[in-house]
Design goal:
Elements lengths: L1 E5 L3 E4 L4 E8 L7 E7 L6 E6 L6 E3 L7 E6 L4 E6 L8 E8 L2 H5 L6 E2 L3 E6 L1
Parallel strand pairs: 2-11
Antiparallel strand pairs: 1-3, 3-8, 4-5, 4-9, 5-6, 7-8, 9-10, 9-11
Length: 124
């Protein structure tokens, strides 16, 4: 099992946008529900967004609702996170994750499989 979080983060300006992508291997991607989480320095990991295996249902944390999109390409086995109108409080390490049970990732905010994080830093 392998998740590869591609560089899409890094340093960004407040008000700008970022797009992260996470390519997977070792799982039957199309059967997994995928999500993004983040962890800011000194804080607990928090849920950001999730997308159901078929791509027709999404959920978002209140902190990003209205400025966030999650999508997936099952043919490419990749999940994406688009975050707009960036704020300094979006600064965190972002992780993609996958789980076979929708409520685990979308409601209980947990997952069986995790990718390595990618740092996003938003400057004001």
């Amino acid at each position: 099992l392998r998740f590869s979080c591609r560089r899409g983060g890094g340093l960004a300006q407040a008000g700008g946008s970022l797009r992260l992508s996470c390519a997977t291997s070792g799982i039957t991607f199309s059967t997994y529900h995928m999500g993004w989480f983040r962890q800011a320095p000194g804080k607990e990991r928090e849920f950001v967004a999730a997308i159901i295996s078929g791509g027709f249902r999404t959920v978002f944390a209140d902190s990003v609702k209205g400025r966030c999109a999650i999508s997936r390409d099952n043919a490419k086995r990749t999940v994406y996170l688009q975050l707009d109108t960036l704020k300094p409080e979006d600064t965190a390490v972002y992780y993609c994750a996958g789980d076979g049970i929708w409520n685990d990732i979308a409601v209980r905010h947990n997952a069986d499989y995790w990718g390595k994080g990618t740092q996003v830093t938003v400057s004001s």
